Amino acid sequence: MKIKNWMNKNVKTAKKTDTILDATKEMKDNFVSDLVVVDNGSPIGMITERDIVYKVVAMEKSSVETKVEDVMTKTLITANINDSVTEVSRRMGLAKIKQIPIVDGNNSLVGIVTSTDLIRVVSHFQKNMDAIIGK
Question: Which residues neighbour 93 within 8 Å (Cβ) at sequence distance 6 or greater?
Fold first, then answer.
């Protein structure tokens, strides 16, 4: 089963030149805990609530002066739209990450998958298995 069937297409993003204040407002307004940082439609990093707490607030930096690129996670792990759910789950588990941007063949951002999405996949299949075995 392809990850494209389970990904969220409504990805919230930031630009590397955005301020931390801008990014935080975007997270708050959209009820998300992370943003994919994009450049020309391709993902180049992630910024999470944890990045903001540890690298801005705890370090007493200004949210107005600090840019997203200064604190974002630059080592980005992505998955391809045609990868299997199993492969994406494995990749997330090995990297110990809670979300993974999904890209197409041109490395353009097309979606995101979170650990919550993967729980939804398992739940879907568990219900189907329960129906088959009569639980």
Answer: none
**Sign of the dihedral through C-alpha 27, 32, 37, 40:** negative
CA distance 102 to 9: 9
Q: Quick check: 103 and 109 in contact, CB under 8 A?
A: yes
pLDDT, averaged per 10 consecutive residues of the chain (135 residues), comes to 93 98 98 96 96 97 97 96 95 95 96 92 68 59
Long-range contacts of the stretch 123-126 (C-beta < 8 A, 24+): none
- CB atoms inside a 10 Å sphere around CB 66: 18
- pTM of the predicted protein model: 0.87
Structural domains of the chain sorted by starting position, each given as residue range(s) with its CATH number in brackets: 3-133 (3.10.580.10)
